[in-house]
Amino acid sequence: MKAFEFISPLQAGIPTKLGLFSDIHFDSPDCDKETFKAHLDYCLKDQRYVLVGGDFFDAILLKDQKRAVNHIVEGRDNQLNVKLEEAAHFLDPYKNIIIFFGRGNHEESVMKYNGLDLLQMLTSLLNAGNKKNQIQYGNYSNFLRFEWIKPKHTGIAAHYDIYQHHGAGANSPVTKGMIDFNRLLHGVDADLVWCGHKHNSLVLGADPLMQVSKNGDVILKNRQAIMTPSYQKSATVDYNINFAERFYTHQSLPGFGEVTITPQYEDKKVILQKDIKLNVNPSLFVGKTVSQKLKLRQR
User: Fold this and answer.
1) pLDDT confidence of 187, banded at 50, 70, 90?
2) pTM of the predicted model as reported, rounded to 2 decimal places
3) From edge to edge, which strands make up the β-sheet containing 136-137?
4) Do residues 258 and 17 touch, judged by C-beta distance below 8 A?
5) How far is residue 286's CA from residue 245's CA, in Å, rounded to a whole number?
6) What's the mean pLDDT in 28-45?
């Protein structure tokens, strides 16, 4: 686990905007790159920083005979190089707003069986020669602290903690990941818990934590949780039906989480106003139904 600090000057009324993405599965033939690009363009125009919480790569190789269908680029033996080249080219216009990459189970699988850290290499490619912004590279789970410092002052006026965990386990067709949230929330003191992995979209409104402040006041600290969906389309060919379809459920439509934190002064104290929501596609074309008309002979 790693911890990262992102520091901003304190300006009342000026928000810090974050876009939380996960489970892009960029190199999968089922990745909805068109929607992903549209959402990155939205973040670029909105001056919203982008964080990716694991499984940016699908990284299915020939060793995985069950899932390797259509994942291989013909005429290239160096398949991992292909994935890196395409990803770096695609993300290059957005490298000044991307601030964080975390690993997912797909990246860790490549590390375990192939001894190569795809995500670290992608981060290095995007950071090379970029003096304006250096993307931070994390682990499977990370603490992300956002701090606001008053002008001409070294002390921290306010901070907001995000605990990012890629997620674990299989799909949750009934609970939609609520068990995961409860496990994380009751073991972590953070303002926001963020996970992905299950390809579901969910926001937990509030789960307050009672604590004593540094002034001796007993207070309730509000905590929230968000699960970000995938950009991998749910429909596949008949002979390669995916996990969600096999188990009579479906995954959420492509989208990301929007977190907007605005510092304000109230009674000479800095108060952080938070707005957390999901930006998810209203619909997605996945295929057409096939119908046959059979004419039966009368006996």
Assistant:
1) confident
2) 0.86
3) 136-137, 98-102, 49-53, 16-21, 255-266, 269-280
4) yes
5) 12
6) 94
